[in-house]
Amino acid sequence: MKNRCFWVTDSELYKDYHDKEWGTPVFDDATLFEFLILETFQAGLSWITILNKRENFKKAFDNFDYQKIAKYPESKYESLLQDAGIIRNKLKIRSAITNAQLFMEVQKEFGSFSKFIWSYVDGKPIINKFNKKEEVPATTPLSDKISKDLKKRGFKFVGSTVMYAYMQAVGMVNDHTTDCFKYPN
């Protein structure tokens, strides 16, 4: 039996996410945008709620194609509000559209969103050495800094807690606990 991080439940979906995605460095802009959308929708909710609805989000948001999302007309926004398969929060749906537009602005400025976001960690993951859940932070000075920068650029639902969860998800920080089989030795 594999020893996993404390937050992993018996859910196969959770185990699969933990084992194959969480903490694995992501440099692809399309995947970075997908996680940005999912993390912003997760704000105030449990991650398992988002994982359970991930395929619905994927379908509703055109496979997380930020170029399409950035051009969503009001009619698409209205239809998303009616989609029971996703989180029907007006502000979060609106922010997905706004964040897609701003994501492309960052790409123009830096060449890719990946270059921008990974520059905060000099292009390589921060490997933390946490032994138990009480040691894993919800925010850090770095997530505060990224949050502040994104907010200044106009991004929505990118508070420090959301940004730290994002950093964990896309592997900018590796917070697998030292007893987890995914902890890098």
TrEMBL record:
Which keywords appear in this protein's UniProt record, sorted alphabetically? DNA damage, DNA repair, Hydrolase, Metal-binding, Zinc
Reaction(s) catalysed by this chain's protein? Hydrolysis of alkylated DNA, releasing 3-methyladenine
Any single Pfam family the record assigns to this protein: Adenine_glyco
Enzyme class, spelled out: hydrolase
- GO-annotated molecular function: DNA-3-methyladenine glycosylase activity; metal ion binding
The EC number(s) attached to this protein equal 3.2.2.20
Residues recorded as binding Zn(2+), renumbered to this chain, are C5, H18, H176, C180
- What's one GO BP annotation on this UniProt entry? base-excision repair
Q: What Gene3D superfamilies does the database record attribute to this sequence?
A: Hypothetical protein, domain 2 (1.10.340.30)
**Taxonomically, which superkingdom?**
Bacteria
Purpose of the protein: Hydrolysis of the deoxyribose N-glycosidic bond to excise 3-methyladenine from the damaged DNA polymer formed by alkylation lesions.
> What name appears for this protein in its UniProt entry?
DNA-3-methyladenine glycosylase I
Q: What is the lineage of its organism?
A: Bacteria, Pseudomonadati, Bacteroidota, Flavobacteriia, Flavobacteriales
